[in-house]
Structure formats: structure tokens, C-alpha cells
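Researcher: For the annotation table, I need C-alpha cells for F-type H+-transporting ATPase subunit gamma. Please keep the output clean. Sequence:
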Amino acid sequence: MTGRLADVSARIENIRQLGTVVNAMRGIAGARAQAARTQLEAVETYAATIAAAIGTLLAATAIPAPSRAQKPAQLLFCAEQGFAGAFSEHVLDHAAPEAALFLLGTRGGMLAAERGLASVWSHPLPAASAGVPRLARQVATELYARIAAEGVDRIDAVYQSWRPGKGLEAAQRRLLPLDPADFPATALRNPPLLNLPPGALLASLTVDYVHAALCQAALHSFVAENEARMATMAAAHRHIDQQLQGLELTRRIVRQDEITAEIIELAAGQAASGMPPAA
């Protein structure tokens, strides 16, 4: 019986240590999500400013509506690490069979391989949101190289975002070519003076817009992945609490059984020796 009590006590200690790890992972995920939200607000303001500039330029410079894509590509923002629920699965569900796939996220790459989804390019996500701008530059460089070498004529980004009260929501956003419908033309009473030809200025703004859009998608994904991990860790914490409650009850029962067994053993010894029970 004593051995069983020791086993139960050891299990309680092990589960408490696991709970400490779970709480630490939850705290790290929360801090990362909060930092990424702060950066996302700045990036969205920057992207909106560029979009407004493009809209103003389109008021004087017409660009054709995009034609049907012949060589589409998708940029899939999956999870970099585990313990994020079905985060990557929801992104991979949007993979188009006719599109060349660019995979971001180590965990997502593993799941894509399990599904038999082949990617033309893959890259890990940064451990901290501060690395997102550098990642966006790397992704953009690869995308432009594919456009030049292989004639890719449409690029969409698929990523997860986190909505309070709703959880994960998958979003798909066109990156290239620009769709005039996404940039309502804004005619100004005093149009800005241009020091560049409209075409060259539009090309430069497009590069900036794509970089901002990549940062937005990556930061949304970063926040969502860490929020999903927090939810997973919260569920694990509840499960650990339930296990601890059950084991604590078991330990009390085992201890009571040991005390009862000792009392019975003492009483039996007294009876066998013929000694009267103590008053």
C-alpha cells in the first residue's frame, strides 16, 4: 500500500511540473501575440496610406482589370511550431490544385508533405514578430524571381486571423496583380505634383504595397498562431487541473486505506497476543 501512495504522489508531482511548463508556454504565446498586435496596427496604417496613394494615382492613370490567371501561385502562411490545434490544416484546406504553392511555417510544411502537397518554395517563420519585415523582403524577392522566370501571373496569400469571440478565420488576399476594385479612385481638388512618370510611380508604390501586405499577412498569422497556442494551453491547463483533482482524491483514499490497514494490523496483533485493547 505504501508503494501505491508513493506512485500516486510521484504522478501528482510530475503533472504539477507539466502544468508549470504549460503555463510558461501560455505566457510566452500571450506576450508574442501582444507584441505582434502592436506592430500590426502600425503596418496596417502604413498599408492604408500606400493604398490611398495608389487610389489617388489610379484616378489619373488607368490600369486594365486583371485577366484570368494562367499560372497562379499561393502563399500559404502555416504554423511554425506545434500545439496550435488545427491552425495549419485550415490553411492547407485552401490550397488550390492548379497553383504553385509557397509554404511558410515548418509545422505547416510537415503537414503539407503528409497530405502530398508539393511546394515550389518553403521557408520557416521567424520566432519573433520583429523578424517579419525581413521575411517579407525574402518572400517578395522569391515571388518577383518566379514572375520573371516562370511567368507567374497571379499571387494570393492565404493566412489565418484571430477574431475575439470567434477564434480562427482563414482569409485569402490577392497580392498581384493589383485589382483596381481594391483601390477606389480618389479625385482630389488639388492633385499632387508628380516627379516620376505615373507608370514608374505606380510600380514603386506596388512594390511598397506588396511588402506591406506581406507584413500584414505574416503578422495576422503570427498573432493567430499564438492565440491558438494559448487556447490549446488553456485547454491543457484545465485537463491538468482535473487530473490533479482526481489524483489528490486518490491519494487521500490510499492514505486512508493505509491508516485503516495499520489499525486493523495493530488490532489483530493485540488479539493474537492476548493483550486487552488500550482504553
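Researcher: And a one-line annotation?
Model: The domain at 63-180+196-233 is CATH 3.40.1380.10 (Pyruvate Kinase; Chain: A, domain 1).
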